[in-house]
C-alpha cells in the first residue's frame, strides 16, 4: 500500500494530516526555530536535503519539511523566505533570492470541490536554474522552472516556466526582454 508521504513525493493527491507527515513537519519546525534563533549553518545543513558550499540563508526562514530543499553553491536566501517543500525545490548555483520570496509547491484541487473540502492536496516541484535573481517579494508557484541567468522583478507572481537569460516581471510574470 502506498503511503501518504509516497503520494506527496510523487505528485499524487494526499492528505497532509497523515501522522507521518505531521511528525516530519513538527521535526522540521524544531530545526527551523533553532535556525531562526541561532542563524546556524549547521542547522540548515541538517534541515535541507543538500546545500552547496558558500551558500547561506537569512532568518526568518520557514519551510514544511526541509529535506526536499536542495540549494547549490554560492547561493543566497534573504530574510523572511517561505519554502513550501511538499515537492522538491531545487535552487541552482549562484542564485540570489530577495527578501520575502515564496516558493510554493503545494496545489489544491480546483474542479473537485469535495476533494478540496476533504483537505486533499498535491504538489509539483520548483526548479530555479543557476545564476538566477529573484527580486524581493517574488512568488513562484508549483511546477515552475526558471531558466539559468534569468532575472525576476520584485513582486512578480511566476505561474509558468520562464526561459533562461530573460528579464521577467509582473502578475502574472511575463518575459520583458532577453538578457
TrEMBL record:
Source domain of life: Bacteria
Keyword annotations: Acyltransferase, Repeat, Transferase
Segments forming domain Maltose/galactoside acetyltransferase: 5-53
UniProt xrefs under Gene3D superfamilies: Hexapeptide repeat proteins
Enzyme Commission number(s) from the entry: 2.3.1.-
One matching Pfam family: Hexapep
CDD domains per UniProt: LbH_MAT_GAT
InterPro entries, sorted: Hexapep, Hexapep_transf_CS, LacA-like, Mac_dom, Trimer_LpxA-like_sf
One GO molecular-function entry: acyltransferase activity
Family indicated by similarity: Belongs to the transferase hexapeptide repeat family.
Name of the protein described by the UniProt record: Acetyltransferase
Annotated source species: Lentzea sokolovensis
Amino acid at each position: 500500500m502506498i503511503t501518504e508521504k509516497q503520494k506527496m513525493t510523487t505528485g499524487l493527491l494526499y492528505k497532509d494530516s497523515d501522522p507521518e507527515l505531521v511528525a516530519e513537519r513538527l521535526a522540521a519546525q524544531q530545526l527551523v526555530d533553532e535556525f531562526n534563533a541561532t542563524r546556524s549553518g549547521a542547522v540548515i545543513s541538517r534541515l535541507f536535503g543538500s546545500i552547496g558550499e558558500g551558500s547561506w540563508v537569512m532568518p526568518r526562514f520557514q519551510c514544511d519539511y526541509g529535506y526536499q530543499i536542495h540549494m547549490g553553491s554560492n547561493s543566497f536566501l534573504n530574510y523572511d523566505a517561505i519554502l513550501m517543500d511538499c515537492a522538491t525545490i531545487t535552487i541552482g548555483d549562484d542564485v540570489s533570492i530577495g527578501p520575502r520570496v515564496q516558493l510554493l509547491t503545494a496545489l489544491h484541487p480546483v474542479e473537485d470541490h469535495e476533494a478540496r473540502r476533504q483537505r486533499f492536496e498535491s504538489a509539483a516541484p520548483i526548479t530555479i536554474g543557476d545564476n538566477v535573481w529573484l527580486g524581493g517579494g517574488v512568488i513562484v508557484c508549483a511546477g515552475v522552472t526558471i531558466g539559468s541567468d534569468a532575472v525576476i522583478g520584485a513582486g512578480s507572481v511566476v505561474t509558468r516556466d520562464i526561459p533562461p537569460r530573460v528579464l521577467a516581471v509582473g502578475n502574472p510574470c511575463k518575459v520583458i526582454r532577453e538578457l
